[in-house]
């Protein structure tokens, strides 16, 4: 049995999604806890997030593969790969953006297309990321114990 690597509640509160290091995503109906879907998406999954309307679920694997699929049909809608080595991944609260950190850089990518929408350099090697609940800021924590805050989009350079 593989380790769980990520959990996400749907914004409408109807589902809980779990992701594991063996690439499996499971979808649970709430409050009963009945498993309604299970799918092997491949790769060592690192993060999952629902869209704001709870209709789509996105996942990112250790190799940078991002997949987006329909909650109702489990059909894959889009897939792309972020090239490079990334130490941290975080989906925005609305599920539309993915923040990626590799080394001293931070990138914001559109989940549906993979297009880089903003990037910034930092002062540390970032190992953790968090969005403010309204999506208006991103915090990055680094290996040297520093935390840097970017107010989106003012201090993140648009590409």
Helix-strand blueprint:
Layout: E1 4-9, E2 15-20, E3 24-29, E4 34-40, E5 45-50, E6 56-61, E7 65-70, E8 76-81, E9 88-91, E10 97-102, E11 105-110, E12 116-121, E13 126-131, E14 137-142, E15 147-151, E16 157-158
Antiparallel strand pairs: 1-2, 2-3, 3-4, 5-6, 6-7, 7-8, 9-10, 10-11, 11-12, 12-16, 13-14, 14-15
What's the gist of this structure?
The protein is built from no helices and 16 strands. By secondary structure, the protein is an all-beta fold.
General description of the model:
- The strands form four sheets. This protein has a five-stranded antiparallel sheet, with no helix packed on it. The chain has a four-stranded antiparallel sheet with strand order 1-2-3-4, with no helix packed on it. Strands 5-6-7-8 form a four-stranded antiparallel sheet, with no helix packed on it.
- It is 0% helix and 57% strand.
- 27% of the residues are buried.
- The model has no long low-confidence stretch (mean pLDDT 86).
- It folds into two domains: 1-81, Thrombin, subunit H, CATH 2.40.10; 84-159, Thrombin, subunit H, CATH 2.40.10.480.
- By secondary structure, the protein is mainly beta.
């Amino acid at each position: 049995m593989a380790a769980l690597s990520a959990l996400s509640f749907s914004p409408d509160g109807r589902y809980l999604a779990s992701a594991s290091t063996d690439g499996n995503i499971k979808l649970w109906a709430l409050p009963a806890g009945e498993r309604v879907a299970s799918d092997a998406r491949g790769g060592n999954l690192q993060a999952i997030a629902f869209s704001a309307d709870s209709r789509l679920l996105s996942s990112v694997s250790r190799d940078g593969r991002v997949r987006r699929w329909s909650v109702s049909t489990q059909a894959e809608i889009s897939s792309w790969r972020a090239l490079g080595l990334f130490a941290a991944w975080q989906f925005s609260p609305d599920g539309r953006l993915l923040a990626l950190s590799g080394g001293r850089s931070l990138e914001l990518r559109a989940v549906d297309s993979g297009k880089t929408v903003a990037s910034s350099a930092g002062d540390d090697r970032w190992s953790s990321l968090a969005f403010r609940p309204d999506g208006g800021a991103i915090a990055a924590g680094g290996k040297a114990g520093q935390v840097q805050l970017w107010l989106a989009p003012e201090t993140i350079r648009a590409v």
